[in-house]
What does this fold into?
Amino acid sequence: MARGLNKVMLIGHLGNDPELKTTASGQSVVNFTIATNENFKDSSGNLQEKTEWHRLVAWGKLAEICNQYLKKGRQVYVEGRLQTRSWDDTKSGEKRYTTEIVCSDMQMLGSQGHTEGSAQHDDRQQVSTSQREYQQNSPASSPSTPPSGALLENDKDDLPF
It folds into this structure.
């Protein structure tokens, strides 16, 4: 019987520079957002565009690489899983929730100064972290333990599309 599948794949542009933090145990974590766009025709036949914003988090070596190479506006391909966290708001006392994508793979697309439609060269780079690496590099194998390993690959033929 199937257990289920929790997998997200997105291509979008960074809405801000990644924000790197270090946990009390010394683990690196980075947060950033990306925007994805959808074009469609409305009932009147007019072309419309809808932008959806996504919160992302990466851990360990992948977090450090994201912090070093990703900048606002950069196009990126990410893979990961959805995760919902909750916390108590200290001001209102209410329980708050957020849903984010925990990155397992990241691939930079275009060039650093790339804008849509430009003729600049393509300098794709890929960062991958497999589930096996998570288990090998993780100090404890619990769902709350973030991955601590990442592998940098410069393989232009390994594109998600």
